[in-house]
Design goal:
Porin; mainly beta; about 10% helix; 16-stranded antiparallel barrel; 5 helices
Length: about 375
């Protein structure tokens, strides 16, 4: 039986809790901050031949946004709260190389709705790994429901992302949980991923294999004073109406580099998806105003589609588009998408407890009768252990 709480009460409780932590965090990190970082490890003994480690983990992300704009020739404005993520899970390392991990999604509501209860498995897999194996410095092989790592933004966990929502082009290809076999390997400083995925939607758990496969190859390495990430997925599934991979192929190049207090992430993604063929560019610099405490984040993103109304899903589908739908206004469509974001992140206990705020301007152009543009103000409170 789902449990439903008032959005206002949940958001208010989150804000009061984080405000208390902020007051407690003046000066040196308090004891609770260190405890939050280590409390999840409930057992660890590498000399035990049966079970070496048991770790519990969870995260709660709440957010609120106000949006004002014009969509499909109609003006709108409004606000709403969302319990963005509520996840809990555990991992067990056993038999000197095996690891089982399960993480549940426990939010069922969405924008303006805080209904709680089991929704689906975020990840659910079993893997085996060891060092100096099969000619690599380290290798792991796993099977089950995994987070699909595609692009630099998606590789940053939601616990550590610098903007309240990821970019539109990332959300077009990331944020997926397919079922498959994935191999992670490292050799001479280069990290490789080979994935063979079921194209069948997984539903709440694991998917079957009766709808074909998709193949992924990735490499991460250091060059030109920064980190490069190369990704490619072949799916041949653009025409499927019910698919995890609704494109034929997609590729991504990410470059990430530090310049003192500045970190710069850039990404280019291009693909073939029937008559849509989305492509996009993201540049995301951050600046540490106060090291380990206050950070400024900026982002420019551009996305394009070869179809008149096929622009990639907006990163503010959880913001401006949901406000438009709430106000019974069409959500707009086109073939070009531009967005500019600026925000501040306040770290109370690192990424374990933080506050985030941002403002974003978005524009979708193409068909004059369906264009969308507007501004969204964001606020988020996030915690994990």
């Amino acid at each position: 039986m789902p449990i439903r709480f008032s959005s206002i009460r949940v958001t208010a409780a989150s804000m009061l809790f984080v405000s208390f932590l902020a007051q407690a965090s003046d000066g040196d990190p308090p004891g609770w901050a260190n405890a939050l970082k280590t409390m999840g490890t409930v057992y660890s003994n590498k000399d035990n031949p049966v079970i070496q480690r048991v770790k519990l983990f969870g995260r709660v992300h709440g957010q609120w946004n106000y949006s004002d704009g014009d969509s499909a020739s109609e003006s709108f404005n409004g606000s709403g709260e969302e319990l963005r993520r509520l996840r809990a899970g555990a991992s067990v390392s056993f038999l000197n190389g095996f690891r089982a991990l399960g993480r549940m999604n426990l939010e069922q509501g969405g924008f303006g709705d805080t209904e709680l209860g089991f929704d689906s498995w975020d990840e659910l897999y079993l893997e085996f790994g060891k060092n100096d194996w099969l000619g690599f410095d380290s290798v792991s092989i796993g099977y089950g429901r995994h987070k699909l790592l595609f692009g630099g933004e998606e590789r940053q966990s939601s616990k550590r992302i610098k903007t309240i929502e990821r970019s539109a082009i990332n959300n077009r290809f990331g944020s997926r949980r397919p079922t498959g076999v994935v191999v992670n390997a490292e050799k001479d400083g280069v990290e490789y991923i080979l994935g063979v995925w079921s194209r069948k939607p997984a539903g709440k758990g694991w998917a079957s294999w009766n709808d074909g496969v998709a193949v992924q190859g990735s490499a991460t390495f250091e060059a030109l004073d920064g980190e490069w990430i190369l990704d490619f997925i072949y799916a041949a599934d653009a025409d499927s109406e019910d698919a995890v991979f609704d494109y034929d192929w997609a590729s991504s190049v990410t470059y990430n580099r530090d310049f003192g207090r500045v970190n710069l992430l850039t990404n280019v993604t291009f693909s073939q998806a029937g008559d849509v063929d989305p492509l996009g560019f993201v540049v995301l610099p951050t600046y540490e105003i106060v090291p380990d405490k206050l950070e400024a984040a900026f982002r420019y993103q551009w996305a394009h589609s070869s179809a008149d109304t096929g622009v990639p899903r907006s990163s503010s589908s959880r913001g401006i588009r949901r406000v438009a739908r709430k106000e019974a206004v069409p959500t707009g469509s086109g073939d070009n998408y531009h967005a500019v974001y600026a925000g501040l992140n306040y770290y109370i206990a690192g990424d374990n407890v933080k506050l985030m705020t941002g403002i974003e301007y978005e524009s979708v152009t193409g068909d004059p009768e369906n264009k969308l543009d507007g501004i969204t103000l964001w606020f988020a409170a996030r915690m994990y252990f």
